[in-house]
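Try this one yourself first.
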């Protein structure tokens, strides 16, 4: 069975890996080779389109510059002047300087700008100092432009500018009354080197290049500087013109492919070329790499498949043996493989399960023994509860007889003492309520003070400052009276004096309800105060209650603290603040009515 599982895992992995490699390799090579071929064709097309687009945008920016000049009122005024108006010409020519200057400053590649009116007006401005300037040659050049029918109201590009190494951007200025009637010529002399800078940034691989020709076959740009300005071979030019927007080959250029596209704006044709060998080399490299990587990957994958199968089967065998031992009643833990993977996590979970099962079995034995002991204690508690139900009734009846004799003897003191004691006794031993209202606790203190009046042989009033809004809030029964009783015993050890006070107050915050009992007695020493607060903090609801009495009916401060924790939780209870010789303040912390979660008693 073990060998069968190993063979199955290994065989399945071999099939999956081999099938995946063949499918991915063949499909990837076929798709990649096709994509590479399409990519090179698309690359040529994209580069040509981008170059044409950037060139057109570059030239169109100067068309906007001409518009900024044409809309100037100074230009319109100069072109509308009558012929041979010497004074007007002189004034307008000076004004035109202010029109040309912003254009020349914003476009430093413009060497010269000019406006020539048919009325004899002439204005020029330069970005460079030209010495000497051939005015006669310039006038002849302008006359040629006037007679050129290809130049109209749109911006026209002349490859041979008036200045060497420049292009001429020129347009005729139409009359406002007729778009076919012209009143002058405006032109820029643009450095062709700016375009060369733009074109030199285009790369077509190691041996690729492109060149630009105009509509007459003159080369405007070529990586070989010696060919710029020369005429393209006639056969080559005809082939370029006949194969626009498609891949083609040029005669006498073996092993290269070309792509051409003509700009509708400038009329120039851009031709891009790439080597066929350079284009096909990535495909052959891809084929060779695919085969080598496929073979190496297959060998490595087979080795890893064997190792992976063993890494699965070995921990399974360990778990199988451990389970067999555990089934026999021997709590066997399986050692970890050290790989820290899911198999180790599985073994860890198995060991944890075995440990918990062993603990649970031991706990079941302990629980059975504890249940027997608890059953005996429960029977004893039920018997004591029945006895407690009988004894108080006898005591109540006895107290009522004492009250009757006090009435007969007309002793109001005995009647008040016994009646107060009877109420306090009934209130103390009630088992139906653990939580009671603040008002009932204060009433219990009232009866307690009635007894203390006769014991101390003087009246003593407690200053209750609790707001009426809190009288119906809940608190644990028998918590205030032990605190007040503790004040009489410990805060006033030498008797009650007129200066002595006891203040009971209460307040709330967002989650808790606080009740305080404060006195101005002798206070508590710092060491004793620390021990008492530490005892409160370390107490638990499952501790034995402190039952050492401090006065008849009192059950101790720790008893009060533990009962509050049993009802509301361990975060609640008593805390004490005291200064020796100044007084003591005991604070009861309980949850407010809106946030109260009563724990089972």
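Now uncover the answer:
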């Amino acid at each position: 069975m073990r060998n069968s599982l190993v063979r199955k895992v290994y065989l399945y992995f071999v099939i999956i890996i081999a099938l995946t490699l063949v499918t991915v390799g063949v499909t990837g090579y076929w798709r990649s080779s096709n994509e590479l071929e399409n990519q090179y064709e698309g690359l040529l097309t994209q580069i040509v389109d981008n170059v044409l687009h950037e060139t057109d945008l570059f030239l169109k920016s100067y068309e906007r510059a001409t518009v900024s000049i044409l809309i100037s009122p100074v230009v319109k005024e100069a072109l509308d002047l009558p012929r041979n108006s010497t004074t007007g010409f002189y004034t307008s020519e000076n004004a035109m300087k202010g029109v040309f200057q912003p254009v020349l400053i914003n476009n430093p590649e413009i060497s010269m700008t000019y406006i020539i009116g048919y009325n004899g007006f002439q204005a020029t401005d330069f970005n460079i100092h030209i010495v000497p300037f051939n005015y006669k040659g310039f006038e002849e050049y302008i006359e040629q432009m006037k007679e050129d029918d290809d130049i109209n109201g749109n911006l026209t590009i002349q490859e041979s500018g008036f200045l060497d190494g420049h292009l001429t951007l020129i347009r005729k200025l139409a009359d406002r009354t007729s778009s076919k009637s012209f009143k002058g010529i405006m032109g820029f002399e643009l450095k062709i080197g700016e375009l060369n800078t733009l074109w030199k940034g285009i790369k077509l691989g190691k041996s690729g290049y492109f060149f630009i020709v105009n509509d007459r076959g003159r080369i405007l740009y070529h990586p070989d500087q010696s060919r710029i300005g020369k005429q393209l071979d006639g056969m080559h030019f005809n082939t370029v013109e006949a194969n626009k927007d498609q891949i083609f080959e040029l005669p006498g250029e073996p092993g290269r492919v070309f792509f051409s596209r003509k700009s509708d704006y400038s009329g120039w044709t851009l031709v891009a070329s790439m080597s066929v060998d350079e284009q096909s080399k990535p495909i052959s490299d891809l084929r060779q790499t695919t085969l080598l990587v496929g073979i190496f990957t297959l060998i490595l994958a087979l080795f890893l498949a064997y190792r992976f199968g063993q890494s699965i089967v070995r921990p399974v065998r360990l778990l199988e043996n451990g389970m067999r031992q555990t089934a026999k009643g021997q709590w066997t833990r399986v050692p970890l493989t050290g790989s820290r993977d899911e198999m180790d996590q599985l073994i860890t979970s198995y060991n944890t399960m075995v440990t918990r099962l062993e603990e649970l079995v031991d706990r079941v034995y302990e629980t059975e023994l504890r249940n027997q002991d608890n059953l005996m204690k429960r029977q004893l508690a039920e018997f004591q509860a029945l006895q407690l139900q009988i004894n108080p009734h006898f005591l109540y009846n006895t107290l009522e007889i004492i009250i009757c004799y006090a009435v007969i003897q007309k002793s109001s003191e005995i009647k008040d003492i016994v009646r107060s004691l009877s109420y306090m006794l009934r209130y103390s031993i009630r088992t139906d309520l653990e939580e009671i209202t603040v008002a009932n606790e204060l009433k219990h203190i009232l009866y307690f003070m009635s007894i203390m009046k006769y014991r101390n042989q003087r009246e003593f009033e407690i200053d209750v400052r609790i707001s009426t809004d809190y009288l119906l809030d809940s608190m644990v029964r028998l918590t205030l009276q032990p605190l007040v009783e503790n004040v009489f015993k410990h805060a006033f050890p030498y008797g009650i004096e007129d200066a002595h006070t006891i203040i009971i107050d209460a307040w709330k915050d967002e989650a808790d309800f606080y009740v305080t009992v404060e006195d101005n007695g002798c206070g508590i020493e710092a060491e004793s105060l620390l021990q008492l607060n530490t005892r409160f903090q370390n107490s638990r609801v499952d501790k034995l209650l402190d039952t050492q009495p401090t006065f008849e009916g009192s059950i101790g401060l720790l008893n009060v603290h533990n009962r509050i924790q049993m009802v509301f939780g361990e975060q609640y209870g008593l805390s004490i603040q005291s200064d020796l010789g100044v007084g003591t303040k005991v604070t009861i912390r309980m949850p407010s009515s809106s946030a109260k979660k009563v724990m089972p008693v």
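Discussion: Confidence is low (pLDDT under 50) at residues 385-390, 541-555, 597-601. The radius of gyration is 55 Å.
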